[in-house]
Amino acid sequence: VGGAFWAGFVHENAQEELVLRPPGARPEEEFLATCIRCGLCVEACPYDTLELGTYGVDVPVGTPYFEPRKTPCYLCEDIPCAVACPTSALDLAQLKDESGELDVSRSRMGVAVVDYNNCIAAKGLRCDACVRACPYMGDAIFVDSRRNPRTGKHAMLVPVVDADYCTGCGLCEHACVTEEASILVLPREVALGRAGEHYELPAPDFTPEVPADEI
Ligand code: SF4
Ligand code: SF4
């Protein structure tokens, strides 16, 4: 986690409130009451995405979490982590479609939030690395045009996330080209709930760093 925005965000939120859980995880309190700390989900993940909280890490000990900047969730179609869970702390019911088939696109591990004050596309440079990394490109994240405030006429193309479709997999955060990720997955209740009430997301500052006619 880095950049002025995220530093502020982390300061405002206890680290454990920013923990991302595997697909199908029940709401945090319920999850903590249901997860028996067996680690079967972690063992089942073929990408080593999941880790178990341990002493010295701000995650309840023995509970699974992931850090997308390090290793995102690759959204396995057969969702082995959730299938391995013996207590339904990872709830398969949340991950099934109307016909009862597993559908990993129903995962809601978090939601990606763009820090437009750090995103280079919002400074007028060409970049869509996060958009191209998304398996739900066009739905969960898309490129939108914003008026260039300097020239008033040239459009800038910036990434925009639609929380209704974002799974929180973090493939975008993993792919972001800036040194500190300019798109970060946050727990949904933080990004969409409490954050909305108590933490003002930074207003996009679409000031380009290079003249628009050189873009
Ligand atoms: S869906 Fe696949 S990649 Fe994602 S956490 Fe589960 S097992 Fe790992
Ligand atoms: S976290 Fe990023 S890559 Fe994953 S679904 Fe959401 S916008 Fe797409």
Topology:
Elements: H1 3-12, H2 28-34, H3 40-44, E1 51-52, E2 64-65, H4 80-84, E3 111-114, H5 129-133, E4 141-147, E5 155-161, H6 171-175, E6 183-186, H7 188-198
Antiparallel strand pairs: 1-2, 3-6, 4-5
What does this structure look like?
Residues 25-55, 62-95, 110-146, 157-187 form the 4Fe-4S ferredoxin-type domain. Keywords: 4Fe-4S, Electron transport, Iron, Iron-sulfur, Metal-binding, Repeat, Transport. GO terms for molecular function: 4 iron, 4 sulfur cluster binding; metal ion binding. With 215 residues, the protein is α+β, with helices and mostly antiparallel strands. It is 22% helix and 12% strand. It folds into two domains: 1-14 and 110-207, Alpha-Beta Plaits (2-Layer Sandwich), CATH 3.30.70; 21-106, Alpha-Beta Plaits, CATH 3.30.70. Strands 1-2 form a two-stranded antiparallel sheet. β4 and β5 form a beta hairpin. It is globular. The relative contact order is 0.19. Residues 195-203 have low confidence and may be disordered. One iron/sulfur cluster (SF4) is lined by residues 22-23, 44-45, 47, 49-50, 73-76, 79-81.
What is the typical, i.e. mean, pLDDT? Answer: 87
Bound molecules: iron/sulfur cluster
Provide the domain count. 2
CATH topology of the largest domain: Alpha-Beta Plaits
Total beta strands? 6
Percent of residues in β-strands = 5-15%
Strand order of the largest sheet: 1-2
State the end-to-end CA separation.
Answer: 29 Å
Quickly give the CATH architecture of the largest domain.
2-Layer Sandwich
* Overall geometry: globular
Order of helices and strands: HHHEEHEHEEHEH
Taking all Cα atoms into account, the compactness measure Rg is: 18 Å
Structural class: alpha+beta
User: How many separate helices?
Assistant: 7
